[in-house]
Amino acid sequence: MLGAAGALLAAPALAQRAPQGCRGPVYLTIDTGWSREAEAIAAILRRHAVTATLFIADEPTFRGDRTLSDAWAPFWRARVAEGHAFASHTWRHWYFSGDPAPGRTTFRSRRNEGQEVLDQQGLCAELARPIEALRRFAPEARVLPLWRAPGGITTPNAVRMAAACGLRHQGWTRNGFLGDELDSAAHPNAALLRRNLAAIQPGEVLVMHWGVRSRREPFAGILEELITGLMARGLCFEALPAEGKA
């Protein structure tokens, strides 16, 4: 069954060929967040022709608005023009916390905004809404039939119900957790850079954000060095394929 979210998808993009001399691809994914470093991160990606997959939700930003408000339309249009791919990260960025009954899943805010038990139609609508917002800004955006739960936390019903909407859940690989959500006192940028450069292998799905409110040493400060270091090892950056990556 192809639900509301699936109906909004663009036709799958043609498979990308790895550049000559590439030892293997890595797949950078960026989730919405505080967005304080969004423009700086976008400039780094542009400088190095890095194509990423952007998982979008309507979250609060450092400017006091929200990531999918009209004020952010120019930012998202620019990312579409640069060739990045997009996928749903839910609309409200609440967390899945249990399956109370068949065909039902509990969706709960961590900011004391409440909770809701979603049925099939409700989940499809929740996943479709950020893509609908993006389409208003940029109808030509390349959207993949993927979704990511906030925090990567799923329930069996949420995964099954999303599949009935036409969407496959996409997490990240163990070595792909770049650490931008970690406390910078315990995990300073220099340590994250060393770890990531040593651990990341071809085929990894990497995850980061457009800035994390709680991190005092912004991860964007080492992103360029991380990208160039991985490229020096012969890795290349690609958007996720339409079928996702395990």
Q: What's the quick description here?
A:
The protein has helices at 4-7, 38-47, 73-81, 120-137, 156-164, 189-199, 220-232, and strands at residues 24-31, 53-56, 85-88, 95-98, 105-108, 115-118, 142-147, 168-169, 205-209, 235-237. With 246 residues, it is of the alpha/beta class. It has a single domain (24-237), classed as TIM Barrel (Alpha-Beta Barrel), CATH 3.20.20.370.
Verbal overview:
This protein is of the alpha/beta class and 246 residues long. It has a single domain (24-237), classed as TIM Barrel. It contains seven helices and ten strands. Strands 1, 2, 3, 7, 8, 9 and 10 form a seven-stranded parallel beta sheet that branches. Strands 4-5-6 form a three-stranded antiparallel beta sheet. It is globular and about 50 Å long. Mean pLDDT is 93; it is low at 1-18.
The structure class reads alpha/beta
- The number of distinct β-strands equals 10
Question: Which CATH architecture would you pick?
Answer: Alpha-Beta Barrel
Q: Please, what is the oligomeric state? A: single chain
Estimate the helix proportion, in percent: 25-40%
So what's the overall shape?
globular
CATH hierarchy class name: Alpha Beta
- CATH topology assignment: TIM Barrel
User: What is the average of the pLDDT values?
Assistant: 93
Low-pLDDT residue spans: 1-18
**Gyration radius, to the nearest Å?**
17 Å
Largest sheet: 7 strands, parallel
Instruction: Tally the structural domains.
Output: 1
Counted by DSSP, the helix tally is 7
Beta-strand content bin: 15-25%
Q: What is the rounded distance between the termini?
A: 22 Å
State the CATH superfamily name: Glycoside hydrolase/deacetylase
Organism: Falsiroseomonas algicola
GO molecular function, one term: hydrolase activity, acting on carbon-nitrogen (but not peptide) bonds
Protein name: Chitooligosaccharide deacetylase
Domain NodB homology: 24-238
